[in-house]
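=== Discrete structure encoding ===
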Amino acid sequence: MAERGDADQALSPSSATTASLPRDRFRGALLGLAVGDALGAPAEFLTSAQVRDRWGVLDEMVGGGCHEVRPGEGSDATEMMLELAESLAAHGEFDPEDVVARYRAWFAAGPRDVSLTTRTAMLVLAAGTPWDLASRRAHEVLGFPTAGNGSVMRCAPIALRYAADPEARRRVSLRESTITHYDFLAGWSCVALNDLIVAAMAGRLEESLPAVVAALEPDDSRVAATLRDAVEAEAEEIHAAAFVLDSLGAAVWAVLHTSSFEGALVEIVNRGGDCDTVGAVAGALAGARYGASAIPARWLEPLVVRDRVTTLADALAERAGS
């Protein structure tokens, strides 16, 4: 097993390398997240057979679905990602009070799609519970494990801001996740995804995967095992489900077992289930790997938040020194 310092070195570009990370990869990570969310939103909660019966192959921005989204419109994954990205861009560092204030304002505006765990945490916050206790209280209220995918879906801006600082990236990934998700399985999944996003941005996704797994093993062997399994899993073992390990494993599998941004996203969204959220996770990783220039124009053109996302990705790249 690699030592922590060895893993950090493998996962952190030097300052020179960080400065030369393509801006296209920064944009790709956030635009990819938004595209995956919007592409999958109409198929959320359908089975793969229902997706096939309705569209044949879902590979266009069609809109509709249970939340009646417009073509190119996403859900809570994109909305919460934008709140987090705007806070990081404005303050330069993770400011939990500011992030919580932004999430509360977003929730108060009445978003159409909010997961049960996040909704409960937001209601607890609205009742006056301090932010650093809210997810624990929500966990107690729900009375069951809260390791859903509601934090891993939004965490990509942390990878961008802390691309050159793996220790800060881990710390912030964990802390930000606990705003809504008390179960550290969700937090370590955010750590894993953000480490993989940085590796993908540097063009070293496959070769960095063993170091990511080794760094996670002492902290959460379940997340490490999920990443190992994603390399060898068969297609029928992959589930676009809301449990965070299912979401993370499906997203990583799709990116590793396809050869283009479009291929990874089509693979995920046609599975139905929680395919908007898993599409967002896969889109962030695939976008980091291939860059914004590899995202099909027919998906970018109707994307409702395209300009806002691009501006934020550029701002985070500057904050990271790239």
Summary: The longest helix spans residues 23-40.
